[in-house]
Amino acid sequence: MNASGILQIVVYCAVLLATALPLGLYLARVYDGQKTWLSPVLAPIERAILAVCGVRRDQEQHWTAYAISLLIFNLVTLLALYAILRLQAYLPFNPAGEAAVNADLAFNTAVSFTTNTNWQNYGGESTLSYFSQMAGLTVHNFTSAATGLCVAVALIRGFSRRSTKTLGNFYVDLVRGIVHVLLPLAILFTLFLVWQGVPQNIDAYVTAAGLDGAQQTIAQGPVASQTAIKLLGTNGGGFFNVNSAHPYENPTPLSNFVQMWSIVVLSGALVFAFGKLVKDFRQGRALFIAMSIMMVVGIGLCYWAESSGNPLFEPLGVDQVATDVNPGGNMEGKELRFGIANSALFATVTTDTSCGAVNAMIDSFTPLGGLVPLFDMMLSEVIFGGVGAGLHGMIVFVILTVFIAGLMVGRTPEYLGKKMEAKEVKLAVLVILVFPLSILGLGALSVTLPAGTAAISAAGPHGLTQALYAYTSTTANNGSAFGGFSGNTLYHNTMLSIAMLLGRFIVIVPTLAIAGSVAAKKLVPPSAGTFPTHGTLFIGLLIAIVVVVGGLTFFPFIALGPLVEHLSLAAGTSF
Amino acid sequence: MFKHIRQAVLATIVLTVIVGIAYPLGMTYLSGALFPYQAHGSLIKKADGTVIGSELIGQNFTGPTYFHGRPSATTDTDPNDSTKTVPAPYNAAASNASNAAPSSKALIADVQSRIEALKAENPDAKGDVPVDLVTTSASGLDPHISVAAALYQVPRVAKARGLSTDETVKLVQASTEGRTFGLLGEPRVNVLKLNLALDAVKAK
Q1: Distance between CA atoms of residues A151 and A477, nearest Å
Q2: pTM of the model as a whole
Q3: ipTM of the complex
Q4: B13, B38, B77, B111: best to mutate for the A interface, most A CBs within 10 A
Q5: Residue whose C-alpha is closest to residue A14's, from A357, A376, A296
Q6: CA nearest to A330 within chain B
């Protein structure tokens, strides 16, 4: 660790905080249906899209109708992506002549992008045509992120409304998210990325002569437009195989800084929007502080672990000490322009949120450095989390927290003036149980069956971590990977798809049910016995519950994987 | 139910047209107009239009007269067996990383053999080998090396080219990019640009 690295991390956090607040106020206006300074341009587009779809803007939906609209829309987009991938050989914009994607990989990819996971069992530049990238994956990067926003907004409305049966209209919220939020940001971000060097073309792959006579075929494509939304929408699926580590996808330290910012900013802004929409700004601030504390601890641990370098390199005569001319640290699987600090920071924020884009290979991180991303995801992606998904996931943990606090004093718990009764708590527990069920259930199956273990490339405890990481990442809808894990087999394409669907929709439907149930309740004025949910005590309790639920559930597996590997490395053992 | 399906299909179609076709193609047009060099891959061309490479994509330099980049883990399809792959460093049509575990015996063996090869190629180099010269990059296409890694190779390149060490060090310094705004990223040397600068000296 050095001063330069720490300064970069501090500046990053400061910029994030300074921008999330105004963006949050903008988001609040958008979802409240108020005019913004962009409305003159964007509102007509919104109206036109809704008119084509046959949706009236004042058509409010009960939570079940909202959920059905959401599920059917997601199913249709899933099928559309599957069809595009299977038919890409017959579709336009395919200069590299990519063949049809085989059935199980196409299904896995379609599920992956529909669920905002973007797990990459495909290699972008060697599998997909430009058409598949644009009309397939890019569309999903918008729709899956906007879907997450819809669920969060519906849940917020559940709390801000009283004695009502309806939560808004799914299509109105979906189109607003895309037209007023994601698209304008993506357009600006695309141009910024191109300025920094990210290609944006539909050219054929370039053949270069090479200065030393080593001929090179260089992949091209509409990279910037997809990279912009992959990060803003916390999707994370790379245009290229190595994602944001590719010098075309992330060419400079500045592009990297803005990419890391764009991963978290919308999720951070939504927390402030939440405070604004429930008309108690302190509530949003409390969640923001809780999330920030967990994020900063993770960044610090990961940066420290990666700066320490690989102890097995020491006896070989490798210079791993960071200086002004040497990045130092564990540089296997990292890019020089980013060095250690930016690689550790990127890996932490991409797994705090459900983004999953990477600028360094997490499989080659030191055991404790790699544990940070894994643990981040095991906490159910609530440290800012996916766009929308992070906030609604965190509110579920809040319900659990006020419930436990209520048990301690023997009172019916309340949150934001609504009584949390048996129904809400049961639904919240259901949401929280999906994670251990899917990660441990499917993960255990996969490290037992020969079809599952075939994908593991590393020997020793690292092999277990690879499999555990895969099922954690897909359940958490993150999509980052220990890349040595060869998941592109019939078995894993299927099982990982199941994990992604469980982690997405078995979370969304109960969350909407909570929203519907809470919306119907009356407002209870706070009394002397109400547990305040904006103070230090609440923040501490919330963090404790998130960490204990994640930590205790998964600790045995963390001990057998990363911790054993760490101790072995320290003892000089390799596998 | 029919209404739900109709809305979903129409929404999918209209959103695909807007964010799947109009957005990327519109951005392609606009980027090409505003930043034509970057939009088409930052390609470096000779006077006759032949593409030498991209300034953003590393190349596989092996000879003694050029600075070498970092080890690359990219592969290509085995010409004898299409189900297998063979090492193909700096394959810019299939980016890839080693994904080697830090505790992997194979990684330690690879690093050891890279150190031996570097020491054999650079007998006059001083000190320990900088870590970036013996570890593979995340993309396999890393265009940069650290300043320490460039300085490590200076004695070899200077000797092979008949240049003085001072002159070669000056070229390295001239090709060094600092941290952006003095803050972001790591100081670094673009290997392709440095080697182009070397060739320009020879042409004088």
Answers
A1: 15
A2: 0.96
A3: 0.96
A4: B38
A5: A296
A6: B131
